[in-house]
Design brief:
heterodimer, A: about 130 residues, mainly beta, Cathepsin D, subunit A, domain 1, 7-stranded mixed beta sheet, 3-stranded antiparallel beta sheet, B: about 70 residues, alpha+beta, 3 helices, about 50% helix, about 20% strand
Chain lengths: ~130, ~70
């Protein structure tokens, strides 16, 4: 069993499960932070992250994804290697210029399939557990 | 978590007050670049610390934080 705990980020009483993750693209590792969103099927990053990762956003698989206000936004999906704690795995993440929430979203696809994710709001910790 | 990641967690409140809406890059528990895009701050950080992977985070604004459902 592998497990890692991440402390929530806190500001003025707000506590948010935004965690650091690694992304490998074209042989190079990058570190970014993403909101762990159990309500999101897909991991969707800000389009600006694609520029950093040297990903041509429009070469990805396009999908229209419904968001919280009921509207659809275009998302372009690309394959990457993701790292959470010490665990590296293949993942498909989307990039969108219309994300508009101010942070990246870490959704369930590919992530929750290999980790059990446990939120402890009292201790302000989110745990990622992987059973061998 | 790495030392720099823990530093971000510990100082997040101050970061929101000072840098809300900006991207920052942190290496060795220090802010080494501030800017408007992750590519910009990543490049500046790696120029200074070519052997390190900078921790790049988009600091949310106070308004964005209060609007999280």
């Amino acid at each position: 069993m592998y497990s890692i705990e991440f402390e929530y980020l806190t500001h003025a009483g707000q506590k948010v499960p935004i965690i650091p993750i690694g992304i490998k693209k074209k042989g190079k590792w990058y570190e970014l932070w993403a909101f762990v969103d159990t309500g999101a099927t897909y991991s969707i990053f800000e389009a600006k992250e694609a520029e950093r990762l040297e990903v041509d956003i429009y070469k990805g698989r396009k999908m229209m994804v419904i968001v919280g206000d009921g509207s659809f936004i275009p998302v372009y999906f690309h394959k990457v290697i993701m790292k959470i704690g010490e665990v590296e795995f293949k993942a498909e993440v989307g990039f969108s210029e219309r994300l508009g929430v101010g942070f990246n979203l870490l959704g369930r696809k590919d992530v929750f399939e290999i980790f059990k994710v446990c939120f402890d709001d009292r201790k302000k910790i989110v745990s990622f557990l992987r059973e061998e | 978590m790495t030392k720099s990641q823990r530093w971000i967690v510990r100082h997040f409140g101050e970061l929101v007050e000072k840098y809300g809406g900006k991207y920052i890059a942190v290496v060795d528990e220090k802010i080494v670049a501030i800017g408007d895009s992750p590519a910009e701050v990543d490049r500046k950080a790696r120029e200074q610390f070519p052997d390190e992977i900078p921790s790049v985070i988009h600091i949310p604004t106070k308004e964005a934080l209060t609007c999280i459902l």
